[in-house]
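Incident review: delayed structure delivery

Summary: a single-chain prediction request sat in the queue longer than the usual turnaround. Root cause was a stuck worker, restarted by the on-call engineer. No data loss occurred. The affected request and its eventual output are reproduced below so the record is complete for anyone auditing the incident later.

Affected input:
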Amino acid sequence: MPVGRSPNKHLGKPARQLLFSEALRQTQNPSPASQEHPTNQSRVMVDTSQGATMDHILQEISVVGRRLEGMDSMMTSLTEDTKSMRLDIAGFQSRVTVLEQRVTTVETQAVLTSDRDKELLYLRSKVIDLEDRSCRDNVRFLGFSEEIEGADVQSFLKNNLP
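Output delivered after worker restart:
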């Protein structure tokens, strides 16, 4: 169908398309010429049907407007929630960074402690070995008074021990 033509082909008149603002004005304030002249009655009837359609469209627009207002408040709420989440995430990131640093420090100290434990075990076994060796070289004789051996311990032991 050619643009600007009426859907009724038998009339052959081009249909005038109304702008939304024109239709709105016609439904709210009908022109005085259409009310006074009976020849414009058919146009008034067309305008009235278009006015009813426009009323319906206006109602739909107001419904959509209310929905959009509700969506606007939801978007505002979502935006605030997103900002709050970003702040929370930034806080979590800083806390995770601090915790990672602390874990690294603890791991380093654990390695050092492990090395110290190994060294301590080695030194402990060495001390035990040295104590055992020093005890083997020392002989205790009971029943003799102090410093009875005098200056020559070997001759004293040869004389007193069988």
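Verification: The chain has four helices and no strands.
Action items: add queue-age alerting; document worker restart procedure.
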